[in-house]
Specification:
Blueprint (H helix, E strand, L loop, with lengths): L2 H28 L6 E6 L2 E5 L6 E5 L4 E4 L5 H12 L6 E5 L5 H4 L12 E5 L16 H10 L36 E3 L3 E6 L2 E7 L8 E5 L4 E5 L20 H12 L5 E4 L5 E2 L1 H26 L5 H7 L4 H4 L11 H13 L14 H12 L2 H13 L3 H14 L4 H16 L4 H18 L1
Parallel strand pairs: 4-5, 5-6, 6-7, 11-12
Antiparallel strand pairs: 1-2, 2-3, 3-4, 8-9, 9-10, 10-11, 12-13
The structure holds zinc ion.
């Protein structure tokens, strides 16, 4: 390398790495949310943070304990149970699932002893999990693995935004299933009060992240167990792995219901609990306001005729919310929430008739290449974009090239490089994992 190209490289590279550090440092800092610890959140209430993907809580009653959520894998759950056993040897009388996602239910076998506990869940439990399609919508699993970074080497994964890095075991007991861990009792109505081991708890229907979400209110300890309607990150109003539409309106409503309780502790489905009545109040208000804002402002823009691409620029979270540490886009992202609100009300058509029957990607790309003066010019532009650190544009140009010639190794390489650079500056863990996973897939294809 000549000295002048070295200087050019350094000039080009320095701001890139500086930015890279800002995003990755912020995301790395978030990993403190999953330092392994059993936290006492009230006199008889403990939450195990960081041992598994989700939080697992224990309420100690007169003659038994109640477990809220069970973590993702039995191995992690066994370690949690061992920690809980240091605090009490009372039997597990009940398990409550805040919702049906595997990271909250998979560890159940670790908490079921000889005496079979009651297992409580929402009446909609699991109804969104398996779409009623022969064979299932299997591509969701491919996208899910990309979002979680399951195929990335450990050094490329920082965390999952709201959870520590885990790799599900193939074939093994990743998710417990079978009769022993299926719910036995259901929340049929808006709310119900249960009494287990002398402890009175209120279960409240709270659709949001899923339609089978419930929250648990412990009036004695003044603890709220919010499930995944709350964690310390901007909420995942849309998951990029692809999920049924999450009602942003109902999510905001459920946050209102959470805030109605006079709580001194707020235990989210992930990340460390919020402790202290005034702090809980503030956090729930901000969280609600952020979700409500995304909903209301998007509807306002929709009613002006804006398309999703325009709405993501129009809807900007106010600074007093955007600056909060528990609303940083580590897991969910405001832009994806905006698109999800639009999609939930109006579906895929953005309202612009040009888009009713678009040119195929190949037809469009061929015309763009012609305009540019040929595919070679397009390729040169993609290289230039990459050199200028204009990575989104480089990826879009590479997509045109790949539409014309799907197996073009140079185009795949450009796209892989562009995605890798986008990942470096990305504070959102799911987008980061997705970029890096697809970059890896592309590089494997070129080898
Ligand atoms: Zn979760």
């Amino acid at each position: 390398m000549h000295w002048y190209s070295l200087i050019a490289f350094l000039l080009l590279a320095t701001p890139l790495f500086a930015q890279e550090n800002a995003a990755t440092q912020k995301l790395t800092e978030q990993s403190k949310q999953f330092d392994e610890q059993v936290i006492q959140v009230a006199e008889n209430v403990y939450t195990a943070v960081g041992f598994s993907v989700s939080n697992v809580s224990m309420i100690v009653g007169d003659d038994g304990v109640i477990i809220i959520d069970t973590g993702m894998m039995v191995g992690d759950a066994n370690r949690i149970m061992a920690e809980f056993r240091k605090l009490t040897d009372k039997p597990v009388k009940a398990i409550i699932f805040t919702h049906s996602h595997g990271d909250h239910t998979g560890g159940s076998a670790a908490f079921i002893g000889n005496e079979r506990p009651q297992i409580w869940a929402h009446k909609n439990y699991g109804s969104e999990a398996e779409p009623l399609v022969a064979g299932g919508v299997t591509f969701q699993r491919v996208r899910g693995a990309r979002q979680a970074g399951f195929k990335l080497p450990p050094e490329q994964r920082i965390n999952n935004g709201i959870a520590p890095v885990r790799y599900p075991r193939r074939g093994g007991q990743a998710f417990a299933s079978g009769d022993a861990t299926r719910p036995t009792h259901f929340l049929e109505d808006e709310r119900t009060t249960i009494k287990v081991a002398g402890v009175e708890l209120e279960l409240v229907s709270s659709p949001g992240e899923t339609n089978d979400q419930l929250f648990v209110w412990d009036p004695t300890g003044k603890v709220l167990f919010a499930g995944d309607n709350f964690y310390r990150s901007f909420p995942n109003l849309y998951a990029i792995r692809g999920t049924p539409n999450r009602s942003v309106r109902l999510w905001a409503e459920s946050l209102d219901k959470l805030a109605d309780n006079d709580a001194a502790a707020l235990v989210g489905g992930h990340t460390r609990p919020i402790l202290g009545a005034s702090k809980v109040k503030q956090v729930l208000k901000d969280y609600h306001d952020a979700v409500q804002f995304i909903h209301d402002k998007t509807v306002e823009g929709m009613n002006k005729g804006m398309t999703p691409d325009e709405l993501v620029e129009y809807v900007q979270l106010p600074e007093n919310l955007a600056s909060k540490d528990y609303l940083q886009p580590f897991y969910g992202h405001p832009e994806w929430g905006v698109r999800s609100v639009f999609n939930g009300y109006l579906g895929w058509f953005d309202g612009n008739p040009t888009n009713l029957f678009r040119l195929s990607p190949k037809s469009e790309a061929e015309r763009v290449a012609k305009l540019a003066g040929g595919t070679d010019k397009l390729l040169a532009s993609a290289h230039d974009a990459l050199a200028a650190d204009d990575n989104q544009w480089a990826a879009q140009l590479a997509d045109h090239l790949l539409a014309i010639e799907p197996g073009n190794p140079t185009a795949m390489q450009i796209k892989a490089d562009a995605l890798t650079r986008l990942a470096r500056n990305m504070v959102n863990a799911t987008a980061r994992n997705y970029y890096l996973s697809v970059a890896r897939e592309l590089r494997e294809k070129t080898q």
